[in-house]
Design brief:
lipopolysaccharide transport protein A fold, mainly beta
């Protein structure tokens, strides 16, 4: 009885708990299956982010825009690839334009760059250069000077308009022109405001970096007239603070900024030439019929020294008062076909020719930095040719001639004449600057004016022009020109800007286009010399043309060459540094008024 009752009780309990037990076993089985089954792995889980690029580009440009549609930046490059791991674009030979909210651009170049995908940051490597051009004052916005950063590494923050680096950086602010260092403690330079060309003379203390504006007068243009080792504490400056048209002369203390009037320009002189004591000794007055050169007399007044007509005003000018103060070096084309270098006695007015070149005007003069004695003179016909007059520097010129490619220019000299700064201006590369140690007879490379071009091969090849010709020789030249065009990296198309006629008509007289002609959006045919270096025909000297042809069609102030211009003076006193970084393309003339070449050039 008891056993049967227990059996029934057991079956009852089992039937009551059986569903729960089965569910528990099912849950345990499911848990075991989940734990035991192989784990599904996502496509990217457990993998290291790939360092391989996901796409490549050649000769490309990439633009970044803001949400509103404004262009934010544009990157150009010869080669580039994108790294998806960190959304970075690596670019070879980059040129990067970034635009602020006002649309003003900043330009960056280098050999290599790493840019964030959104364009907000760019890292520049090797010959890195960032340039922000000046902005003039508009409304409440202040004028900003030109800024240029140069270095081997620059980190550019585009949105913040900021540049940083952990390596040495060369910073150039504004279009300032370095003038001179006189007292051994200060450097003088000229700086305008926002490109208004109202130059101010600044003095910087080398030890502390303290900058003093020596001419803090708004709307006034300052001109450095002269500096001298005999008076190292002052600089002679012209200021048009009294009359905008004419500059009065002042002596200004380099360290203090104290200003003293030397000459009030009531005579309306166009310019002065000072002696080694910084006293104005020669002056030039412009007139309708020509110019007049005047000399200071013993009474403090001015006497006439030379008068010359309009045909000689651009090639006749005083250069320097020589060391003894009794004679002056003057460039003069009076009664000559080309400008000669003369020495003139300031008391008697007697003049003697020192140098003349029947092919070209005097273009450059070199005098001793402290003694102001003539040492060398140059003329420029096809190229600049120097004649050394002082035996003391003849060996130096011979040694410097072969240092680098291009034409040599002596930019500055130390007062003890131990060190020279030398520039080499070439047609197929940047201007290269060297330091020459005279006692050691050693030259040391300093820098170039376009670091991004350093080391890049540039080959200029003179070619025949592209035109129809029955001449067999011409046809062969044209065939070779087309071959060079196919191999060239860049072609330069030269257009005659002096007339409305089509360039191909000016060159060949045939306006019918062929397969080599290029047309603009108006359908005009554009042809001409092809390649870098193609340009108008040069006449070696302007004086060889008729007088009316020279004076009626040309503005000498716009002449990019040395013909018909006043010679430069190089004396180590801040003069002669105006060689400029002007283009030196072979066979070109800045005015473009001499017709087109029958040939051209290509570069690769």
């Amino acid at each position: 009885m008891n056993a049967a009752r227990l059996l029934r009780y057991g079956r009852h309990q089992l039937s009551a708990w059986l569903p729960a037990l089965l569910m528990m076993l099912f849950a345990l089985g499911t848990w075991w299956l989940v734990r035991s089954a192989p784990k599904a792995v996502s496509q990217n889980e457990g993998q290291v982010a790939s360092a391989e690029p996901d796409y490549f580009m050649r000769q490309f440009s990439v633009r970044s825009f803001e949400p509103a549609g404004r262009l934010k930046s544009e990157i150009f490059g010869t080669e580039g690839h994108h790294l998806p791991a960190n959304d970075t674009l690596e670019v070879q030979e980059p040129r990067i334009l970034s635009f602020n909210e006002q649309g003003h651009p900043t330009v960056a170049t280098a050999r290599r760059a790493l840019a964030k995908g959104d364009g907000s940051e760019v890292r520049l490597y090797q010959d890195a250069r960032v340039v922000r051009e000046p902005l003039a004052k508009t409304g409440k916005a202040e004028a900003t000077p030109r800024l240029e950063f140069q270095g081997e590494f620059l980190h550019v923050f585009v949105d913040e308009e900021r540049v940083s680096s952990d390596q040495p950086v060369r910073l150039m602010r504004g279009a300032g022109l370095l003038a001179s260092r006189r007292d051994g403690k200060h450097v003088l330079y000229l700086q305008d405001q926002g490109g208004d060309e109202n130059w101010r003379v600044h003095s910087v203390e080398v030890a502390s970096g303290k900058d003093i504006d020596l001419t803090p007068i708004a709307g006034v243009q300052a001109q450095v007239v002269g500096v001298s080792p005999r008076r190292p504490d002052v600089v002679l400056v012209g200021l048009n603070d009294r009359k905008p048209e004419w500059h009065d002369l002042y002596e200004i203390g380099i360290a203090s900024g104290d200003r003293k009037l030397v000459e009030q320009n009531d005579q309306e002189f166009a310019g002065y030439v000072e002696d080694s004591a910084l006293k104005p000794r020669l002056a030039v007055k412009s007139g309708v019929d020509g110019d007049e050169m005047l000399v200071r007399n013993a009474r403090g007044g001015w006497d006439s020294l030379l008068k010359y007509g309009q045909e000689d005003t651009q090639t006749t000018s005083p250069i320097v008062i020589e060391g003894d103060g009794h004679t002056a070096l003057i460039s003069s084309s009076i009664g000559r076909n080309t400008a000669a270098l003369t020495t003139t006695d300031l008391e008697s007015g007697k003049s003697e020719v020192v140098f003349t070149d029947p092919r070209a005007d005097v273009s450059d003069v070199m005098v001793h930095p402290t003694e102001r004695t003539l040492q060398a003179v140059a003329s420029t016909y096809l190229r600049t040719e120097w004649k050394v007059l002082d035996p003391a520097i003849r060996e130096d010129f011979a040694r410097l001639t072969g240092v680098a490619r291009g034409e040599m220019e002596i930019i500055s000299r130390s007062l003890d004449d131990r060190f020279w700064t030398v520039a080499y201006v070439q047609d197929a590369g940047p201007v290269a600057y060297y330091l020459y140690d005279r006692p050691a007879k050693k030259t040391t490379y300093l820098f170039s004016n376009r670091p991004a071009l350093d080391g890049l091969p540039l080959h200029i090849i003179d070619t025949a022009g592209l035109h129809d010709s029955p001449d067999t020789v011409e046809q062969e030249g044209i065939r070779r020109a087309r071959q060079e065009i196919e191999r060239a990296d860049h072609l330069l198309l030269v257009i005659d800007s002096t007339g409305e006629q089509d360039a191909d008509t000016a060159e060949t007289g045939d306006a019918s286009p062929d397969e080599d002609e290029v047309t603009d959006d108006t359908g005009r045919v554009l042809t001409g010399g092809v390649g870098l270096g193609a340009g108008p025909i040069q006449t070696p000297n302007d004086h060889e043309r008729p007088e009316d042809e020279r004076s009626s069609t040309e503005d000498p102030a716009e002449d990019g060459g040395d013909r018909g211009t006043q010679p430069r003076r190089r004396d180590g006193e801040g003069h002669g540094a105006d060689h400029a970084d002007r283009p030196q393309a072979a066979g070109t003339d800045a005015r473009g008024d001499r017709g087109l070449w029958a040939g051209g050039a290509v570069c690769r």
